[in-house]
TrEMBL record, chains A, B:
Pfam families: Aldedh. This is 2,5-dioxovalerate dehydrogenase. One of its GO terms (molecular function) is 2,5-dioxovalerate dehydrogenase (NADP+) activity. Keywords: Oxidoreductase. Its EC number is 1.2.1.26. Residues 8-412 form the Aldehyde dehydrogenase domain.
Amino acid sequence: MAAAPVWSVDPRTGKQREQVAVEATAQEVDAAVRAAHEARGALADRAVRAAFLRTAAQRLEDAKDTLIEVADAESALGPVRLTGELARTCFQLRAFAGIVDEGAFLDVVINHPDDTTVPPTPDLRRYKVPLGVVAVYSASNFPFAFSVAGGDTASALAAGCPVVVKSHPDHPALSELVAKVLRRAAAEHGVPEGVLGLVHGFEAGVELVKHPLVAAAGFTGSVRGGRALFDAAAARPVPIPFHGELGSLNPVVVTEAAAEERAEAIGTGLAGSMTMGVGQFCTKPGFVLAPAGEAGDRLLKSLVDGVSDTDAGVLLDHRMRDHFLAGIEERTRLADVESPVTPGAGGEHTVSAGFLTVPASRLTAEGAYDVLIEECFGPVTVVARYESPEEVTAVLSRLPGNLTATLHLSEAEGAGEGRGAELLAELTPLAGRVLVNGWPTGVAVAPSQHHGGPYPATTSTSTSVGGTAIERWLRPVAYQGVPEALLPVELRDANEAGVPRRFDGRLER
Amino acid sequence: MAAAPVWSVDPRTGKQREQVAVEATAQEVDAAVRAAHEARGALADRAVRAAFLRTAAQRLEDAKDTLIEVADAESALGPVRLTGELARTCFQLRAFAGIVDEGAFLDVVINHPDDTTVPPTPDLRRYKVPLGVVAVYSASNFPFAFSVAGGDTASALAAGCPVVVKSHPDHPALSELVAKVLRRAAAEHGVPEGVLGLVHGFEAGVELVKHPLVAAAGFTGSVRGGRALFDAAAARPVPIPFHGELGSLNPVVVTEAAAEERAEAIGTGLAGSMTMGVGQFCTKPGFVLAPAGEAGDRLLKSLVDGVSDTDAGVLLDHRMRDHFLAGIEERTRLADVESPVTPGAGGEHTVSAGFLTVPASRLTAEGAYDVLIEECFGPVTVVARYESPEEVTAVLSRLPGNLTATLHLSEAEGAGEGRGAELLAELTPLAGRVLVNGWPTGVAVAPSQHHGGPYPATTSTSTSVGGTAIERWLRPVAYQGVPEALLPVELRDANEAGVPRRFDGRLER
């Protein structure tokens, strides 16, 4: 049987651009994983890792023009957005280089012998070691920042783990280009090119998560695909951590007082956030609790204006377009669901933005309306109009886990009056990031970031963005009674490595 | 159908002592979980949690005489060992109270707005929140320290998570007593007694891990039982973290030079460690690579003497005794396996310690001898005699994951000569704790401890002993743009809570 071809497709036309590769066989997946495994020793030196990450960023910037052109041809995301995303990707690689240099991620804890504890403590020194080869399943909607050189790869390499990427079929040509850049950057530092493997094909992805030498996986994508791989990871003879970012509704609550104070600004802001990138952000606000009544009406009017002003856009692929249109069809069929601006097919290859409204009372109990509290990928949001604070609480209690939850408060509520604190406490169990008076799209690459949340937002308690994403690829090891001469340098008393640590109970910078 | 009775059994006689309870029905499990869930708000205040943990320790000490008597009657572990274990348990509760006070476990990271990052960083503040109700599956072999008031419970309560314990059938009477003590301690601080639930019965344990309000689980026990619960946790509509400690061989490598230097001391130390607690420690050294030849022979002679001097002992229950005897039978049947001291039935209710030897060459490839590199719970170890360093490497590469791995080196090797560093590097991938010139039994409750390891030692990268065990029951939440008045006190600029944190990149104590 001939190997299945992998085509690069232009979503603006639906036409094949070029054949990029063929789908990897099980043997080819095995070869990629083994090559990555063999490369792990070259990543043991933290200085090499940091230098490799910085060079990778530089070489991606060097190749910027070509990369943006190919990325745009495959994703239709446009050069402006893609230029920003590439800059973010390079910033992220350098940020992880800084994290590798600092060494706080090693979580060094040292205890000297202590007879006052029960039982007595021997000489015991703990830090974290890399898990091994990491499988990265890249996303469609961020061809740079959540793909071959994205946050999963950057954090895994920073941790000392080689990576095998399962490319996303929406940008195979870009994936090949980026992988080549990373491999060349590795070679510049004496790291074998096998440290970054790339495989194409659905079956290859399944083989990858089952491979005995794969020690952990990172995934960004759909609930269906992510859950299938999560299940495969858990069913292995030796189960492995599976850090999947699957799906998120990203609820927004607008209080009555906030709507009274600035309905128009909220409506306009919502329109901008939900249509950004043709509604293809995992943090798109997909569900809004807005008050019934006059202030809420004003909010909706601004939303109508904002959404109507948005140009039709091209989704990442035609399958997504079909799903989007089917999702709209399914939702608008429900009684009491209205669409002040109906989302739909803009043209043969585009979609137009819109939004739906529903009385919040339809959502306080399980039933057919539950489809409205499921993610619909694309430029649409659902506005549920509530009559009372109790209705808000009732609907919130029924929401699945989310990456983000957003609260719009009045000035007085923000200062502590009214139900602000109560609502914040109600939103916290629902999400990994809680915002006040902002919009969830746009995810900063910061040490304080948490891009994750209760299932199905993520399959673990980890983040895929920000400095702590490195924690996913490490495990602790404690050394007991190991002579100084044999200890890793980070665990010796003298701290020549200069890493932050907990030394006999004291935190040392 | 009448509810199944739960009996307390005396392992010294195999006779039922008393009926303690009945097995919990699904409705009773549901009630326990709901009561725990309702109690979560009472744990929100860190000061209350710390005080509750300290009072729990005090009240357990107050009830010491009764607790030790019942524990000994159900476990046959003897008052000396049990007194030490209770002291350890109370030390652990107080250690977690200290951790709650300090607040480092909250992992506070604060970033103020910063336009120099790509993309720009908003006001973003992260800390960790409790996951919710934790299911604790207690162990047979530590009726205090890994049971109702053990490390899983202590760390979960410290994190702010209510607990429902599935009691171990080997000590149901003690479990009821300890649960009562903890509940009364909770009540002293205004925490509802439902904060600590207790259920009996195998089916109740399965119901518990599937309950929608259970947010995570901790388990200590067998590979078979732990894997079944792990699978159930992963198969839930909303999967939950399952931190299971399942099984461990705890390999020991004795170098030729070490054996030449102190064969007798190593043999005697090994005999003590492998027979401690009738070989019922999860860290029992169950597999030893010792050199062939004269020095190794001397080591074995000491081991014969040490093991022969050990009294026959009572295992925790008769099922374990049956498994132990069957395990010995299966292993001694293999050609080339010898038993210088044959482990076996000491009397009607006891077992006697012993050990087996095998040429290491039998273990360098998959086959019938693989049973020798599986855990056999009880007072037995397997000594594989190696002919060359290459044979050691070949056997190590075939071992499953372990809680511990131990290396015995000569003085010169400890100082950096010879293969010491190389062997340490070979052992590190195999275990969560690596020892030099010590014995793995005895697990200190220290911040630097790591009691966990590659599967099947644990089902996650976490520890069940030591300060970082608290991390298992928390998840991060980032707050973006939240006004000061609504922020948790730990996330405000002023740091009135005095918690260690990362503040705009700087680590602050």
